Amino acid sequence: MAAELGSRAMFVAGGTDLFPKLKRRQFEIDTVIGLDFLPREIHNGSNECTVDAGVTLADASRDAHVNARFKGYADAAGLVSSPPLRNAGTIGGNLCVDTRCNYYDMTYEWRKAAGFCMKKDGDICLVAPSSPRCWAVSSSDTAPMAIALDVMSLRLRATPEMRSAYVKLRRRGSIDFPIAGAAVAAQLDGDIVTSCRIVLSAVASYPLQATAAEAFLKGKRLDGEAIDQAAELAARPAKPLDNADLTHFWRKRMVRVVVEQALHRISDQGAGFDG
Amino acid sequence: MKNELARDVERVVLFLDVNGERRDLLLPVHKTLLEVLREDMQLTGTKHGCELGECGTCTVLIDGRPELSCLLLPVQLQGRAITTIEGMAHGAELHPLQTAFAELGAAQCGYCTPGILLSARSLLESNAKPSRDEIREALAGNLCRCTGYTKIIEAIELAAGRMK
Question: Cys-Cys with A262: which of A52, A112, A184, B75 at CB 3.0–4.6 Å?
Fold first, then answer.
């Protein structure tokens, strides 16, 4: 059906991202193809956990096993928008959530008045007019955490030493998309970091991996000094632009803070599960 | 952009379970549940707010869980239990939450109240004695621009105490 209809059709699972965009005429289609047939279970194995794409964000965030083994992932799912939207929105949908921009997430009439941008109907980026590419911001909460956990096909792989944390910054404590965020997954031997992934949300058009900070932490004791330095390194590649809530200068400064908070949570956390 | 009026409107026959009653409806397939409740079923207790999933005033319960009727298509909801604010009282007997809201003045303009009552009912059905933080979390998708939430939280605590 999708092949036959081409760009005139889109898939819908929870609809919490798609339907507002249809109402704002950001997508103009004739047909939505429901994905209600997708499996909606969380399969907990001895050392891995598979989350079906159709699982709601609410179910993923409340699942006892996901919370025990992948605290960061459960937290990321539980920080998406608001409770009623998490009851409808799905894990698969949040991984695929469209990039956002203050010049794009507006009604058709608003965008027409301001001048269309290259993301839809226009040919320039209104945030960076000389740029050849679109700078809309990646706004998924679970995608950075999935990358940090090195997820394969929504399969969360646990090791006894695995810890994870997700910190999200937004204007209000509910409903809003992230304006900065840090997803951290780390393995520790005692308090020494043996491996670590740090992925930033909402500071680029894709979840941004902070590789310099990851390399710095490897082999280090996860104490306050190491956390401070790692947070500083992690913030460097983040280059938020003036296309999301609050000022991009402040958001840039806050990247260091959210990484620091996430690393402190890792430090305070027990290991992922009892081996 | 296509002219809305020029579009062919596809209609479907749907069987919806609303407040425990089966309703047979012939509906344009694109209508949201909010539109169907208010315009086709005259259940106007469900309020029309932002239409974008941000304010929570159109909250209904789907299989007991709060969801936003402005972002749901009825075609997705066959076989699922839909509860609106009209389904909260039993005849003339108000739900304890409704009584507590009235007694404590937990509403001012009242526009957000149906959505908040349904979110609170869902909470109390899964957590009979919620903490203040748990109440705040459960209401985090329902905006109220009048009350400041304090009386709402107190009313939910009062109802929870009476429902034990």
Answer: A184
Question: How many C-beta atoms lie closer than 10 Å to residue A250's C-beta?
Answer: 12
The CATH number for B119's domain is: 1.10.150.120
Helix (H), strand (E) at residue A23: helix A18-23
Question: In the structure, what pLDDT confidence band is assigned to residue A155 with cuts at 50, 70 and 90?
Answer: confident
**Whether pLDDT at A109 is above 60:** yes
What ipTM did this prediction achieve?
0.90
Which residue on chain B is closest to A23 by alpha carbon? B52
- B41/B49 Cα distance (integer angstroms): 18
Domain with B9 in it: 4-87
From A273, A85, A57, select the one nearest A164 (Cα to Cα): A273
User: Among B28, B57, B87, where does a domain finish?
Assistant: B87
pLDDT (0 to 100) of residue B1: 47
pLDDT of residue A148: 84
Helices (H) and strands (E) in chain A, counts: 12, 9
Suggest the residue from B8, B30, B47, B67 to mutate for an interface test with chain A (most A CBs closer than 10 A).
Answer: B67
The pLDDT value given to residue B95:
97
| DSSP codes of every residue in B72-133 | --GGG-TTSEEE-GGGTSBTTBPPHHHHHHHHHT--SS-SSHHHHHHHHHHHHHH-SS--HH
pLDDT level of residue B3 (50, 70, 90 thresholds)? low
